[in-house]
Amino acid sequence: MTNTLSTNLLRELNSKLVTKITEIRKKYSEVEAENVKLKQVIEEKNSYAKLRDIELNIRIIELERSAKEHAENARQSQTENSELKDRVANLEQEFKKQELQLLACSPLPPISKSEKCESTSQIEKIENQNLIITSQKNTNILQSSVCLELPVISWPEGGSQLP
């Protein structure tokens, strides 16, 4: 009897252990399934992070290229502006030089106190006729090297002198 009792106890214990082993195997397979799902989620997040990283690196490269282009454009603009300023200064100097040459070639006759002018508009009219300088697109200034002779202005007796 003790033998049967111990056999029964062992069988009972064995069946409990088999049940526990089955439960543990079931839980183990559930944990394994969850691990597989979590690994998939991690891989998806990693691939998303890698794609995002690639996109951000591309954006950084584009911004750096754009910054270089803007810096180069700014340098070119500054260079062009300084060249244009130099050109304008040179043209102004040439214009003043030509103006002085024209004035040197055609000096006004000395005006005595007895000579008087009817109005200053006559002088302006004559100067405008004799000092024409043609420019084309503000780049080419054409100048005649011929000295112009201004007509002698006779002052009327009753007119007033220049201020």
Description:
Keywords: Coiled coil. The protein is mainly α. The chain has helices at about 1-105, 120-130; strands at about 135, 140. Residues about 115-120, about 130-150 and about 160-163 have low confidence and may be disordered. A hairpin with a 3-residue loop joins strand 1 and strand 2 (about 140). The chain is rod-shaped. The protein is built from 2 helices and 2 strands, in the order H-H-E-E. The protein starts with a helix and ends in a 21-residue tail after the last strand. A two-stranded antiparallel sheet has the order 1-2. It has 2 domains: about 1-105; about 110-163, no CATH class.
Overall spatial form: rod-shaped
**Number of helical segments?**
2
Strand content: under 5%
State the domain count: 2
Termini separation (Å)?
A: 154 Å
Widest β-sheet, arrangement of strands: 1-2
- What order do the SSEs take from the amino end to the carboxyl end, as H and E? HHEE
Keywords:
single chain, 163 residues, mainly alpha, 2 domains, two-stranded antiparallel ribbon, 2 helices, 2 strands, 71% helix, rod-shaped, disordered C terminus, coiled coil
